[in-house]
Write a structure and sequence with these properties.
The chain is an alpha+beta fold. Strands 8, 9, 10, 11, 12, 13, 14, 15 and 16 form a nine-stranded mixed beta sheet that branches. Strands 1, 2, 3, 4, 5, 6 and 7 form a seven-stranded antiparallel beta sheet that branches. A hairpin with a 2-residue loop joins strand 15 and strand 16. The chain folds into two domains: 125 residues, 2-Layer Sandwich (D-amino Acid Aminotransferase, Chain A, domain 1); 152 residues, D-amino Acid Aminotransferase, Chain A, domain 2 (Alpha-Beta Barrel). The protein binds 4'-deoxy-4'-aminopyridoxal-5'-phosphate.
């Protein structure tokens, strides 16, 4: 169902053309390298962001770069560039790469001065990469199929779950691989309590009798798109309930959708044997979201 070309048909990311912003300089794409003795690689001392630009406008850059800074602080390091510097660098980089509709990937990691668990003397490296990127899930409003993952989101006592930390994506990659191998588009993840959490890279909403219900974001990312959708729905006169959601709640739902910078608003048509036939409210909200991203 996906319109995204298979990975085997794509040019590997380290062999593409263009420019990458790397520690304050703009480098040719092929020159943006790091050494294998990088703490970020060995110990996942690494945080990143995912931002989109639409028609040449970066969508919510301050919110994303604030979260970028906060993600690093939660991993006990400071990103050595201000939010304004990162925003300016992104604008210049998009222009340099002649991109208007792009995915933007800021990333920061600990360097090579120490190679042990303690790493507080390492330098911090920062890069921004931009590339052409269409819909994350082929056709967003035809609906995707999810399967329940055996992997669960850890508690706030077990992981820095408010950080967009590379290490936290290990379970997401495992869950996504298992789902795709079983013929699904993505996985639904529960949290450590067995409550519904999110998918591997997006937040989840249920439409129950005209109201939106979404899990409390207490052990996973409170997505910028999630917050945007909550605002859009409230302005459209739709009630929004943030609460603990169980799997049984899906039996009461007429519609389910995912939200995220990459996923935007993506309809879910099945979760294993549960099917959701309606899509009216999702389509209405998706339209409002799509209009919003183009006017900022
Ligand atoms: N959860 C996870 C695990 C994610 O990777 C993302 C994407 N950043 C989200 C939720 C949604 O966040 P946002 O809307 O800020 O992109």
């Amino acid at each position: 169902m996906s319109s995204v070309p298979p990975a085997s048909a794509m040019v590997p990311f380290d062999q593409r053309e263009g420019f990458i912003w790397y520690n304050g300089r703009t480098l040719a794409w092929k020159d943006a390298r790091l050494h294998v003795m990088s703490h970020g690689l060995h110990y996942a001392s690494c945080v990143f962001e995912g931002i989109r630009s639409y028609g040449g406008r970066i969508y919510k850059p301050s919110a994303h770069y604030e979260r970028f800074h906060e993600s690093a602080r939660l991993l006990d390091f400071e990103i050595p560039y201000s939010i304004e510097e990162l925003k300016d660098a992104t604008v210049s980089l998009l222009a340099k790469n002649s991109l208007t509709d792009a995915y933007i990937r800021p990333i920061a990691w600990r360097g090579s001065e120490q190679m042990a668990i303690a790493a507080d003397k390492t330098s911090i490296h920062t890069a921004i990469i931009v590339w052409d990127f269409g819909p994350y899930f082929g056709s967003r409003l035809q609906g995707i199929r999810l399967t329940l993952s055996r992997w669960r989101r850890p508690s706030a006592e077990s992981a820095p779950c408010k950080s967009k930390a590379a290490g936290l994506y290990t379970i997401c990659t495992l869950a996504k691989h298992e789902a795709q191998r079983a013929g699904f588009d993505d996985a639904l993840m529960l949290d450590y309590r067995g409550l519904v959490a999110e998918s591997t890279g997006s937040n989840i909403f249920l439409v129950i009798d005209g109201a939106l219900h979404t899990p409390l974001a207490d052990c996973f990312l409170d997505g910028i798109t999630r917050r945007t959708l909550i605002d859009i729905a409230k302005r459209a006169g739709i009630e929004v309930v943030e609460r603990a959601i169980t799997l049984d709640d899906f039996d009461k739902a007429q519609e389910v959708f995912l939200t995220g910078t990459a996923a935007e608003v993506t309809l879910v048509r099945e979760i294993d044997e549960r099917k959701f036939d309606d899509s009216q409210i999702t389509k209405r909200l998706a339209k409002l979201y799509d209009e919003g991203v183009r006017i900022g």
